[in-house]
Design brief:
By secondary structure, the protein is of the alpha/beta class. The chain has six helices and five strands. Strands 3-2-1-4-5 form a five-stranded mixed β-sheet, sandwiched between helices. A hairpin with a 4-residue loop joins strand 2 (28-35) and strand 3. Helix 4 (105-113) packs across helix 6 (133-157) and helix 5 (121-129) packs antiparallel against helix 6 (133-157). The longest helix has 25 residues, at 133-157. The protein is globular and about 40 Å long. The two termini are 22 Å apart.
Length: 158
């Protein structure tokens, strides 16, 4: 298979508190990806998921931060296939194996790349609820960009 990863991050419509800690009820507001095959950052709202899933199915790997325990389970109710089919690289899991504890994307980005996130997940929920799509998309793609840069740093530095 051609090495054609996709870096993925998503934002939700609801908080854990809103849905009694049920991941599958969080609902997706927006999915951001970086597609290596086309060198493009793209975003998808719920109505765009029919265009998202074929891209994910063609990817050699999905790269994310907490993708296995958060992003894919939140996305699963929208997908007719099995999420288990996707080969993933979960950077949080990899860092946890080395350090022995979990770190936030923001802390990892600051320590590794001297980059800071532009916000936090609860801000993204407010942006969604206030219909501030441009800000929400910008925030999501910022996380995708940071995740991509961490992934490339890891590839370069083992």
């Amino acid at each position: 298979m051609v090495h054609n990863p996709i870096v993925l991050d998503l934002e939700t419509q609801n908080s854990f508190q809103d849905v009694g800690n049920d991941l599958k009820k969080l609902k997706v507001s927006v999915v951001g990806i970086y597609e290596y095959a086309t060198n493009q950052y793209l975003t998808f709202r719920e109505e765009d998921f029919p265009q998202l899933f074929p891209k994910l199915e063609k990817a050699s790997m999905l790269v994310g931060f907490n993708i296995n325990k958060f992003d894919l389970p939140v996305l699963a109710p929208y997908y007719v296939g099995k999420m288990e089919q996707f080969h993933t690289l979960d950077m949080l899991e990899e860092v946890e194996k080395v350090l022995g504890f979990r770190v936030s994307l923001d802390n990892l980005a600051q320590a590794t790349l001297n980059l800071k996130k532009s916000g936090h997940g609860l801000l993204a929920i407010d942006l969604f609820r206030n219909n501030e799509w441009e800000k929400l998309i910008s925030y999501c793609l910022d996380d995708v960009r940071i995740t991509r840069e961490l992934y490339e740093y890891g590839l370069k530095n083992n």
